[in-house]
Structures are given as structure tokens and as C-alpha cells.
Amino acid sequence: MIIAIDGPAASGKGTLAKRLAAHYGLRHLDTGVIYRAVAHALLNAGTELTDEAQAAEVALTLDPATFDDPALKSQAVGSAASVVSALPRVREALVSFQRQFARQPPGAVLDGRDIGTVICPDAQVKIYVVADPGIRAHRRTLEALSRGEPADEAAVLADILARDARDQNRPVAPLKQAPDAYLLDNSHLDIESGVRAAIDIVEAVRAGRQRV
Ligand SMILES: Nc1ncnc2c1ncn2[C@@H]1O[C@H](COP(=O)(O)OP(=O)(O)O)[C@@H](O)[C@H]1O
Ligand SMILES: Nc1ccn([C@@H]2O[C@H](COP(=O)(O)OP(=O)(O)O)[C@@H](O)[C@H]2O)c(=O)n1
């Protein structure tokens, strides 16, 4: 089974994807970390984020061992990722890695922006996760503070909104809900309730039921 989870920044995609993967015994890929790794490498090399040839080269030679680097979690790297992720050659370079990951048995949960629309359009289950921007900014601020990083909620909100706009308006693989994706608004759900709602969606799809 392949489960595709998409949605805007800090909507809770990764949390749900990890929990669904554990629940169903599937592998998990946070695809955002791939774009973050490309951006981080370019920032470290002092390369312009819009240098498409260099960015594509970095994407093609990316080492998945770098995906665990805690530096990838910063707001600055997230913003840079949304600039490089708009470059068509960067996206093209990363498609086959993601598809191969998804196809290996017993299946996988992938979370990102274009999983249900581009990477795994045939995924058995697609969930589009949203939450109010202010709530997302609050959660992301708490997350940064818990890592010991200074975070200003207003600045985090501005960053999230700018990133969402860039991701939604790019010509290639823009962030949008796939027509066959289920919408899950977790603004007012705690993590456990969100996970239960996501499992309910998966179970309804597996049972061939339409969810109301
Ligand atoms: N339903 C929820 N209630 C409260 N906090 C949440 C909820 N879902 C996620 N979070 C927290 O919000 C932050 C962003 O969640 P995350 O799963 O990383 O989002 P995304 O992968 O969409 O960026 C994390 O700190 C996470 O623990
Ligand atoms: N499948 C994906 C995943 C991420 N991205 C880009 O990478 C950036 C960082 O993604 P992320 O999922 O780590 O961001 P958060 O939602 O965790 O803040 C996004 O803002 C997108 O620009 C993408 O274009 N396609």
C-alpha cells in the first residue's frame, strides 16, 4: 500500500505520515527533507539558490545519509528549499528516487507537496492535511523553541505564508489537493485525534467505502 500525504507547511503531514507508517508497518519518506538537503548544500557552497544547473547537479548526487542532519530543520533552510524546489530540473532529478522508495515492498507513506498529484498519482490512499495558518505557526514556533532555537511566532507565520504562496503558485508540481485526496483539517485535533482521523480514512478506502 502507498499512502500519499500532502499539505502546506507545518500542517502536521510528517507527524501523521510517521504514525501511519508505524501503524501499517510501512516505510516512511519525508520528501521535504530532500529539498531541504539540496538547499542546505547550495547555501553551504555559497551557490545562488536560483542556479538551476548547479542545483540539479546537487539533487542528482544527493546522499540520503545527510537527510538526518538537524540543520535541515531550520526555518532558513525551509525557505531556501521552497526556492530551489520551484526549479523544474531539481524536481525532475528527484522523481525516480521518490518513486523507487514508494514502490518497494511492503509499500510506504510519503509526505510532501506533490505526492498525490505527481510522484504517486496511483497511491491507494491520498490525504491532504490542512490547519489554520496561525495554528501552524504556533505549533512550529513551539517546535523550534523545544529544540532550543529562538523563534518569533509572527516571523514564523510570515515565513509559512510566503512559502505556501511560493509552493502553490509555481508552474511545476504546485501544492494542491489531488481530486481524489481526502481533506483532513487538524486545526482543532490533537495529535492522537488526527492520527485516528487519518486511520479512519485509510480504513474507509480499504473497505471500499466512500467517506462522508
Ligand atoms: N494535531 C496536532 N496538534 C498539535 N501539534 C501538532 C499536531 N500535529 C502536528 N503537531 C506539531 O506541529 C509541528 C509541525 O508538525 P509536522 O508534522 O512537522 O508538520 P509538517 O510535516 O506538515 O511540516 C510539530 O512540532 C508537531 O509535533
Ligand atoms: N514533495 C515536496 C516536499 C517539499 N517541497 C518543498 O520543500 C519545502 C520544505 O518542505 P517541508 O515539507 O520540509 O516543509 P514543512 O512543511 O515541514 O515546513 C516546501 O516548502 C516545498 O517548497 C516540495 O516542493 N515538494
TrEMBL record:
Location of this chain's protein in the cell: Cytoplasm
Catalysed transformations (reactions): CMP + ATP = CDP + ADP; dCMP + ATP = dCDP + ADP
InterPro entries: Cytidylate_kin (IPR003136), Cytidylate_kinase_dom (IPR011994), P-loop_NTPase (IPR027417)
Domain of life (superkingdom): Bacteria
GO molecular function: kinase activity
Primary location class: cytoplasm
Gene that specifies this protein: cmk
Recorded family membership: Belongs to the cytidylate kinase family. Type 1 subfamily.
Protein name: Cytidylate kinase
EC numbers, comma separated: 2.7.4.25
Pfam families referenced in this protein's UniProt entry, alphabetically: Cytidylate_kin
Domain Cytidylate kinase: 3-202
